Amino acid sequence: MNIRILIIAFAAFTIAACTNKTEQQPSNEESIMQTDKVSQTEKQQEGLSDSTHKELKVLLINGSPRKEGNTYLALMEAAKELEKNGIATELLQIGTQAMHGCTACNHCKKTNRCVFDDDLCNRAIDLMAECDAIIVGSPTYYGQPNGTLLSLMQRMCYAAPQVMQNKPAAAVAVCRRGGASAVYQTLLMPFQMLNMPIVTSQYWNIVYGRDEGEAALDAEGLQTMRTMADNMAWMLKRIHNGNPNYPERETERKVTNFIK
Ligand SMILES: Cc1cc2nc3c(=O)[nH]c(=O)nc-3n(C[C@H](O)[C@H](O)[C@H](O)COP(=O)(O)O)c2cc1C
Fold it and tell me: Are 94 and 59 in contact (CB under 8 A)?
């Protein structure tokens, strides 16, 4: 066998080996996709659902008795932006309806529903169960949120924390001049103890206006609403793009009263 045949054979072997290697070794991108496929399959085997194709929906609660006042305008600015992002919204108006306060009867601990069925509380719980996030808005009344909205929030959070947890939440405060930052903080308090990711914006979610419709003149406030909505849409899409992998939390809840 002469040397030329040996060289040709060696070259043919090297080319074949390289071709084979290229076919067998996926690019980085392909590897990631394959890993993803595997983990998706594993997740399906674990019985976890893939919610990629679910329609996402945000519950908006308007805590103002003025149906189409400034709080409504602020919430609608956020709603339009969410809808631009492909996210549906549902508005619950508190209006001028009377609202019970929590009577600490603990009926809801057995049923996950409020014992009072003649106001909006149980309706709000049902809507929250259908929705993936929540935005509550309130006018400022003496530096505080409207009492009817506070009663509703206290009762729905106490009765049905399981329909709230893991869902992104934002608060919006509207005022003529002052006190809105206290309203904003107060509205966020229940969400902060229900494992709900809080959605922020470029500024606190505050809009200014006194008479109905004046909020439309607050260009910065409205932009703050749009940014908050974009942030919420981004968060929702990240959570629901595949399996959300919610954190595993301790199942036994510790409740202490500083005595025992
Ligand atoms: C009872 C009451 C108390 C109010 N207290 C405040 C206040 O503390 N600070 C403020 O800036 N505006 C106050 N306002 C003005 C409202 O917050 C403001 O008009 C707001 O735009 C109302 O929102 P709405 O149109 O969504 O109802 C008060 C209004 C009412 C009716």
Answer: no
